[in-house]
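User: Predict structure, ligand pyridoxal-5'-phosphate.
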Amino acid sequence: MATEHVQVVSRNQVRIDCRALRHNFRCIAESVGSGVEVMAMVKGDAYGHGMAETAAVLAGCGCRNFGVAELVEAVALRQAGIAERIFVLLGFLPEEADQFVHHDLTPVVFLEQDIRALSRAAAEYGREIGVHLKVDCGMGRLGLLPGDVPSFIQRIAELPGIHLAGIMAHFPEADQRQAMSTPKIFSRYQELIAGLDKGFRGIRHIANSGATLYFPEMHCDMVRAGISLYGCYPDGGTGEDVAAGARLQPAMSFATRVAQVRELPAGSGISYGHTYTTTRPTRIAVLPVGYEDGYLRDLSNRGEVLIRGRRAQVRGRICMNLCMVDVTGIGGVEVGDEAVLLGRQGDEKITADEIAGWMGTISYEVLCLFGKNNSRIYTDETR
Ligand SMILES: *Cc1c(COP(=O)(O)O)cnc(C)c1O
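Assistant: Predicted complex:
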């Protein structure tokens, strides 16, 4: 029967614009200049954009370095055919050290057990592994304190099969241009490197998107760009005031289709808990999107969507698979109409930062939620 071959798809579609990904990469690569490399952060399933797909698109336009959190992600990238350098940022289990040899991966190290295990694996296979050292210069997260770095580097030098290829740190507030911590942490990082008695000729990298866009003097040898590649500014702004990165384009959009249009009288309670009651005859569009799709319950009575190019407000609680929006003032809404939850429709747009504002979070989390909880389609995959 012919119907066996019809592919059934969800009405909820996250669309990834590959052209925007390439555009943003080129924007950042141009702004840092040819002497500085870009590491594309593709952790978190590329902030919900799809790790393997995103990495393939970026590799295709010249990205040579990728960053992931865990070893399992790096192996998946290799299996997807990514041949560029892949950094594993958050450590690994000692018994997995040989994976770095098998898959030619770059480990970021911060434990004595990391370098011992890597040295053992390197020796076993007769290979050499370049490690990057993670220093905590004031981030207050992962890494070695600066005071512990010289002896750790000494240990790396003593161990066969490994060598120090890079030193990295991270900023807690580089998205805030006036924050005092950024220059302080950067001087600590520079002093640490300048103070190493045998000198350091490896790769220095400390800048995330914030420092990449707002602190050009802190680019060092490589920048690690995440959110900017996906088209958002780390401070939630529009980038109009950023010369170098003013042209970033959001790569993700999220849309669904109207499931039912209803005319309700004044005084009708809407959805679980009746947290909204209509105050006049109201036309409601029911959407087949809910918190299961990453459209979190926090957006109840708060979110807005675009239908027929106009904004419609979420009314009542968001359910697991449904939410209701008020289309009273919007003429001609019909079942099957597109409703845009994130992105553009007509002259209107809803940004990840706007949604993040309604949810009390940041664009990063919105992108992860929408991208990871829905099927994705990729547009303009070819150059
Ligand atoms: C996620 C991450 C980045 C990228 O941060 P953005 O603000 O998304 O650019 C850079 N460095 C490290 C260590 C990270 O964990």
